[in-house]
Amino acid sequence: MSQRTHLDWLEAESIHILREVAAECERPVLLFSGGKDSCVLLRLAEKAFRPAKFPFPLLHVDTGHNFPEVIAFRDRRAAELGEVLLVRKVEDSIARGTVVLHRENDSRNAAQATTLLEAIAELRFDACIGGARRDEEKARAKERICSFRDEFGQWDPRNQRPELWNLYNTRVHPGENIRVFPISNWTELDVWQYIEREGLALPSLYYSHVREVVRRNGLLVPVTALTPARADEVVERLPVRFRTVGDISCTCPVASIAGTPADIIAETAITDITERGATRMDDQVSEASMERRKKQGYF
Q1: In what order do the strands lie in the sheet with 236-241?
Q2: Where are the domains of the chain?
Q3: CA 166 – CA 160 distance, rounded (Å)
Q4: What is the rounded distance in angstroms from the CA atom of residue 130 to the CA atom of residue 36?
Q5: I need a surface site. Which of 31, 158, 178, 223 has the fewest CB within 10 A?
Q6: How many helices (H) and strands (E) does the chain have?
Q7: 193 CB neighbour count, 10 Å cutoff
Q8: What count of other Cβ atoms lies within 10 Å of the Cβ of residue 65?
Q9: pLDDT tens-digit map of 224-256
Q10: How confident is the model at residue 291 (pLDDT cuts 50, 70, 90)?
């Protein structure tokens, strides 16, 4: 008998979590953006529930500032699986007046929290399954696998349920919900090793390509209509890849010639900077800290 690998153990844990949530929650939903972590979640859901349909729809909270390659991939992947994809837009929250931005080109990353809470209320979801991992950021390291949110959609890191012996408490009252993170115990390296093993398709932005960028505050900022070069900045064309693919206005690539999962695994194994620390402009601003946003209902 072949020895089970660490990926086998992580996969088994994640499948167990998905099945527990499907069995215990009335109206779960899986958050799918087209990013690498949510692509891994889709494969885990396939292994947990196929040949049956998923026992939950897919949901994407669209900022309106997403990379078009990612949106095209999102739609194509959902169609290939034959699963229901629901999309709720920050633009609609802006039109309703529930989201107010200072400027049109401001980052809409944090504004997703409002749109998500509106979707939860509209569709009465009691569990939102997401691809967050503890190694991404300090606030996410505080999350439980089943992270409780109160009737206002808020997270209190000091008021979370124990998960002794991997027992998960999914009980909620009307209006409350839980966020579920089946790959919470995975690392970025684990994710890429799983992508390679499973042969998962991803948006092309994750692999090396030549792009116009400027150097700003220690980051490589992509030159786009939303993030134009400033008068005093020099535009360079460099081989880069994205470690995470969020809102264009706050997501940066890293210099890289890695064109395959194996190449990225080799890069990831020696990096000492987290993927968000290297690529997110808004995470570098204390006012927009992840913990504050999560307390307000963010993913």
Answers
A1: 219-222, 209-216, 236-241, 254-255
A2: 6-190+287-295, 203-283
A3: 14
A4: 12
A5: 158
A6: 10, 10
A7: 22
A8: 23
A9: 998 999 999 999 999 999 999 988 988 999 999
A10: low
Q: Which residue stretches of the chain are H helix?
A: 6-24, 36-49, 68-81, 90-96, 112-123, 138-141, 188-198, 261-270, 275-279, 290-295
In what side-by-side order are the strands of the sheet with 58-62?
Answer: 85-89, 58-62, 28-31, 127-129, 177-180, 146-149
Question: What is the tens place of the pLDDT at every residue in 210-221?
Answer: 999 999 988 999
Share of the chain above pLDDT 90, in %: 64
What the block records as the tokens of 98 is 């529930």
Q: Which residues of 116-135 are buried (b: 16+ CB within 10 A; e: fewer)?
A: bbbbbeeeebbbbbbbbbbb
In this structure, the chain runs to a length of 299
| Residue 96: partners with Cβ closer than 8 Å, 6 or more residues away | none
Say if CB 161 and CB 144 are below 8 A apart.
yes
Q: What is the mean pLDDT of residues 84-111?
A: 86
59 vs 84: CA distance, rounded Å: 8
Measured from the Cβ of residue 112, the count of other Cβ atoms closer than 10 Å reads 24
Model confidence, pTM: 0.90
C-alpha to C-alpha distance for 65 and 105, rounded to whole angstroms: 9
Please report, in angstroms and rounded to a whole number, the separation of the first and last CA atoms in the chain. Answer: 40
Chain center to CA of 86: 16
As assigned by CATH, the class of the 6-190+287-295 domain is: alpha beta
Provide the pairing of β-strand 85-89 with 58-62: parallel
